Amino acid sequence: MIPFPLLPTPIESNYRPCTIPYRFPCDNPKIATPTEISWINVFANSIPSFKKRAESDTTVPDAPAKAENFAQRYGGILEDWKRDPQSHGGPPDGVSLGRVREQILRELGFRDIFKKVKDEENAKAISLFPEVVSLSDAIEDEGKRLENLVRGVFAGNIFDLGSAQLAEVFSRGDGISFLASSQNLVTRPWVIDDLDNFQANWIKKRWNKAVIFVDNSGADIILGVLPFAREMLRRGMQVVLAANELPSINDVTYTELREILSQLKDENGQLLGVDTSKLVVANSGNDLAVIDLSRVSQELADLSSDADLVIIEGMGRGIETNLYAQFKCDSLKIGMVKHIEVAEFLGGRLYDCVFNYNEVES
């Protein structure tokens, strides 16, 4: 694992993955801050949905007992952190809270407790892919077509089982309509809204290669990101899709993404008439729903070194971490706000949208 090559150097002094500061140097190291307690509660509120998924994991012997073990152990560590922020190797942040949860699940033998719902949502989204792409292709104006594709990314990003509220919706089987969601986003201007600037550069600039850090399975990757990536391919760009090495919540892994693309491509390797020879799926080396770009795989580093556009998609990777990260090239952070704590930090609304574009002067 090595630093992402497009981070500015020296990385140690310039890069901090976590967006929201849970504490400041002046805070008492032995007393949890209000922000730490608030975020510990966010992760605690997700325990019931994780436990329910783990209980029904048929690949794990004694899954119900092990699911209960997970809930008790993780809940106990969260309470420890509330009582003493130093109790588990230092004060918690957005990376460590997720890392401990995944470690406990893996220690108990749970490899991918969201596999079933991911497969179901992928199948639904694959069936809708031709319709979504056809609607986009029918928009002749380049700027309007781009905005439609961006709205699709936001609509797809709703499929997030790391949000306790959305996890409840999906567990009830209510589902969420992708096309309705894309039309019913919160009104612009969004909490961070650089879309107009990006549109202008989209038309006048000619990026050669984009790296896209992808997020969730289902509608997110298939109906949101892939139509956007396909449009880039139509423009002659190279596109690298960077996906997790290991499962985390309902995030798509690189092996799953390769399988999805194999189902969407025709016998000529095209994606509804668009050549995919410049499309690559890369293993990011990541195993969390957030990402620390000081540690990515050698494979991704090699594929990314000459990119001139970095896109980080999703609340975990692009908002809760890396929102303010700077790169040697143009960058875009895009995602939907699905925790009220994030909305309050940004001064926006729940289910608000973040479209944070940073242009690097050449």
From TrEMBL:
Any Gene Ontology biological process: coenzyme A biosynthetic process
Pfam families in the record: ARMT1-like_dom
GO molecular function, one term: ATP binding
Domain of life from the UniProt record: Eukaryota
Chain ranges of the Damage-control phosphatase ARMT1-like metal-binding domain: 43-354
InterPro entries referenced in this protein's UniProt entry, alphabetically: ARMT-1-like_metal-bd_sf (IPR036075), ARMT1-like_metal-bd (IPR002791), At2g17340 (IPR016949), At2g17340_3_helix_bundle (IPR035073), Type_II_PanK (IPR004567)
SUPFAM superfamilies per the UniProt record, alphabetical: AF1104-like (SSF111321)
UniProt keyword terms in alphabetical order: Hydrolase, Manganese, Metal-binding, Nickel
Cofactor: Mn(2+); Ni(2+)
Gene3D superfamilies documented for this protein: AF1104-like, Uncharacterised protein PF01937, DUF89, domain 2, Uncharacterised protein PF01937, DUF89, domain 3
GO cellular component: cytosol; nucleus
Name of the protein in question: Damage-control phosphatase ARMT1-like metal-binding domain-containing protein
Organism, scientific name: Microthlaspi erraticum
